[in-house]
Amino acid sequence: MPFLEANGAQLFYTDSGDPDGVPVLLIAPGGMKSADGLWANMPWNPHDRLGDGYRIIGMDQRNAGQSTAPVSADDGWDTYTADQLAVLDHLGIDRFAIIGMCIGGPYVMGVVKAAGDRVQAAVLLQPIGLDDNHQAFYDMFDAWKADIVHLHPEADEATWEAFRSNMYDGEFMFNTSPDEVAAIDTPLLVAMGNDLYHPQSTSRAIAELAPNVTFVEQWKDDEHLPAADDAFRAFLAAHTAS
């Protein structure tokens, strides 16, 4: 199984699909437990839907799935961005598309902000965002922490609180402001969320702010999924090139 040692972490990643296809980095859902295997439980799984024409790069985020790392008070969104780019750099991938679901929405934005010249297209599936739900993200973080705290004697309570603050005390998309979204010229596709963690307001705001965006409102149910699949594949085909 492939692991990469980078930024103090042991990062598990997968490299599948068409080796000659356009590389697509996947950022899985699952909150702080974002791990590549969770795509198998999603209504739209890019491993299944894109593997015939794209090179699919999946990964487990640090301290999720099979990836591990020490916990630091400095950890935050930029830490994860550095990990994600490290995997691509390790594989010698310069230009790529990126797909993120749930917490993958802000992760995608972090990569676009840090390396926008490398991102051909970006897909955000029900991105998380702030809309009278701050405590829900604190609770989610704390539940993840409870599962792994015994593995991290290096982190005291103040360290965990600083880490949680770095992740979830921001506004809008936590790591991306409305003004930053408006300045992104990378082609974006946003598939709307509609629940506590993935509010409609976040998806609609991105669609209104971003200058180069495709917006898909209905996509997860059996009735709309075939058309959504066509839209996702058409978007990637239109904006990527080998």
Question: Key terms for this structure?
Answer:
36% helix, 8 strands, 242 residues, 8 helices, alpha/beta, eight-stranded mixed beta sheet
How many individual β-strands? 8
Q: What is the percent of helical residues? A: 25-40%
Query: What separation lies between the terminal Cα atoms?
Result: 27 Å
Mean pLDDT: 97
Query: Which percent band covers the strand fraction?
Result: 15-25%
Shape: globular
**Class from helix and strand fractions:** alpha/beta
Contiguous low-pLDDT stretches (5 residues minimum) are none
* Helix-strand sequence: EEEHEHEHEHHHEHEH
Largest sheet: 8 strands, mixed
Radius of gyration: 17 Å
Strand order of the largest sheet: 1-2-4-3-5-6-7-8
The DSSP helix count reads 8
Brief write-up:
The chain is an alpha/beta fold. The chain has helices at 46-50, 77-90, 104-115, 134-148, 157-168, 178-182, 200-209, 225-239, and strands spanning 3-6, 9-17, 22-27, 54-59, 96-101, 119-125, 188-191, 213-216.
Could you explain how this protein is built, in words?
The chain is α/β, with parallel strands linked by helices. The protein has eight helices and eight strands; from the N terminus they run E-E-E-H-E-H-E-H-E-H-H-H-E-H-E-H. Strands 1-2-4-3-5-6-7-8 form an eight-stranded mixed beta sheet, with helices on both faces. Helix 7 links the parallel strand 7 and strand 8. Helix 2 packs across helix 3. The longest helix is centred in the middle third of the chain and has 15 residues. The protein is globular. It starts with a strand and ends with a helix. The model has no long low-confidence stretch (mean pLDDT 97).
